[in-house]
Design goal:
2 copies of one chain form a homodimer. The first copy, chain A, has helices at residues 49-52, 58-62, 135-147, 166-176, 187-196, 211-218, 232-240, 254-257, 268-273, 284-303, 320-327; strands at 2-8, 21-27, 36-44, 76-86, 96-102, 106-109, 115-117, 155-158, 179-184, 201-204, 223-228, 242-250, 264-266, 277-280, 311-315, 335-339. By secondary structure, chain A is an alpha/beta fold. Chain A has 2 domains: 2-132 and 310-339, Quinone Oxidoreductase, Chain A, domain 1 (Alpha-Beta Complex); 135-280, 3-Layer(aba) Sandwich (Rossmann fold), CATH 3.40.50.720. In chain A, strands 3, 4, 5, 6, 7, 15 and 16 form a 7-stranded mixed beta sheet that branches. Chain A is globular. Chain A binds chain B through residues 51, 57-59, 62-63, 228, 231, 235, 244, 250-253, 256-257, 263-282, 285, and chain B through 51, 57-59, 62-63, 228, 231, 235, 244, 250-253, 256-257, 263-282, 285.
């Protein structure tokens, strides 16, 4: 059986280019004992993958299930698929599964621990399991509730607020009773945040020349919680504008991913005197203890129409590279997913 | 009654100079109802005061009891003194008190809440209440146990390890069962850490050209806890060398205090992937809940000879400016105190 997959042609430092990706075809080897062959339906497209594509990054050593990506080899990611063949007693043909699948038509899953059968909840598209019911949702939920430890009425700032995680953080924060301001990179996204997602306010950071005074304008009495998806200058300005005992959830740093010069300069005097806490985290940290609660709360909210689902779906395996590149240009609105095959 | 006091001649940005300080003489006004007049015996000399001397700093707004210092006016600090006159029912002549006293021979205390009678514990010098039994000790104790949340066997790195707080952090960490490495700025301090204070290892940062590889040499398996008193390049290097789930106690940033260009560049990719926590704090945060435990544990350790007390005492009010300037040159070993008058 032939299998198309996407790979990188080289390790990537800086901004990724289309030429650094190629589509290859392999012949799938015969199925072996315990193997499960999964046909990919939807694959998750995430900015963090760029760190795995570098020559060196702490992503290679700090995260057990997301090690270095080697040019020419498969690239694994969260995906939803259908079992097409199984030599594993836990799975049968036509099971719908979530797991670590490749940027490929088919994945031979050799480690069943990276797979789980999906409660498909037929009322929802399967793609939701990559976004709002998947890693993005859990990151937003765990990051906001466990890392930020919010109190009702607190002032919350979210960067990349129209992104896969940011939009959910803002929505959870509003539902919880916080005051929420988001920033994004286009006028359309800003309007979406204010008009569709219920943010109290939002701004286009590309139109601002002095982020310190921008944040002072939106938070005259200080920021209690900053949910940081970008790092860099925005993080610096947020620290300057934080209230005493403010918390920074360090979820991502997309501005650093493609430009190591953009690292944030932390004003440690502010951090000390204002007793600011900066906490890095990954969604995997919440899986064991929080997934069940997260799913229950989130499905209820979606059913009740209180949480708005933002998805940005491309189609066909060939579209993976451009979908991925688009993340770094701010092209996606909400969760970026590629549909590889029809359900 | 005449009263000599030290003041600044100008707000100070950058490295403080002797010429920016002067000694002035005032006539003490008559005592009023509720006043307590305290003769200063020992006064605490602390790096953070430089932040209060600036035109602007988060120290002015974030800390209730340590607001801006104005040129020509008195400078308050932790001090130990003897009551010489009292119109306050809570205090009588000859009471020994701890409180917010001025860099002066006498202080008229108008707010009795800034004062407390001292259990002098005659076996110890009164100066200990400014260092090991005072703010430095509480900062080290609360910062290490409450902020760092150590586990036995963890690897701890302390900067400014021969300083007033650092030396105690290292000693508490050793007594608790951690592996401890400190850095300091002279050969003598390094020897002191290793030979007298029981640090597992120590190095002179001035002799190192690449702090990243220095820390890798001392912590080949990573740093679990970094107790940061300096900020800047040392903080950057510590983050690079931290283990997953590492904690940074942001206690001070002396390298930034006199040079705002020295701000640390935080590698947010490391912080995210390694789930690093950076937490600012002040000793006042621990006063209500931890002071009693701190005193009980610390006095027991000192009595048993398990904690070594490092004090650096100058004499006479005239020596305050040079004592203060010396902090930024790394001249002090342990807690810097000026004895203003004989007990």
């Amino acid at each position: 059986m032939k299998n198309k997959f996407i790979t990188i042609t080289t390790h990537i430092e800086g901004t990724p280019q289309e030429s650094m990706f190629e589509i290859k075809t392999q012949i799938l080897p015969p199925i072996e004992s315990n193997d499960v062959i999964v046909k990919c339906l939807y694959i998750s497209i995430d900015p963090y993958q760029i760190n795995r594509m570098k020559h060196q990054s702490s992503s290679h050593t700090s995260v057990a299930d997301a090690s270095k990506i080697t040019p020419g080899m498969e690239i694994n990611s969260g995906g939803v698929g259908r079992v097409v063949a199984s030599e594993n007693s836990g799975y049968v043909k036509d099971d719908i599964v979530y797991g670590s699948l490749n940027w490929a038509e088919y994945t031979i899953v050799k480690n069943e621990n990276t797979l789980r059968k999906l409660d498909t909840m037929e009322e929802f598209p399967l793609s939701y399991h990559l976004g709002i019911f998947g890693t993005s949702g859990l990151t937003a939920y765990g990051g906001f509730f466990q890392v930020c430890k919010p109190k009702k009425g607190e002032k919350v700032f979210v960067s990349a607020a129209a992104g896969s995680v940011g939009n959910l953080v803002g929505q959870y924060a509003k539902l919880f009773g916080c005051y929420v301001v988001g920033c994004a990179g286009t006028k359309q996204k800003v309007e979406l945040l204010k008009e569709k997602l219920g943010f109290d306010d939002a701004f286009n950071y590309k139109e601002e020349t002095d982020l310190n005074s921008t944040l002072q304008r939106y938070f005259p009495n200080g920021i209690d919680i900053y949910f940081d998806n970008v790092g860099g200058e925005m993080l610096e300005a947020a620290i300057v504008n934080m209230s005493p005992f403010g918390r920074v959830a360090a979820c991502g740093a997309i501005s650093h991913y493609t430009n190591s010069q953009k690292q944030a300069t932390a004003n440690m005097i502010d951090i000390v005197y204002k007793r600011i806490r900066i906490q890095g985290f990954l969604s995997t940290d919440f899986y064991t203890n929080d997934f069940k609660d997260f799913m229950s709360v989130t499905t209820d909210y979606v059913r009740a129409g209180k949480l708005c689902v933002l998805e940005d779906v491309s189609h066909g395996i060939e579209s993976i590279p451009s979908a991925f590149l688009g993340l770094f240009q701010g092209e996606n609105v909400g969760k970026k997913v590629v549909q590889i095959a029809q359900e």
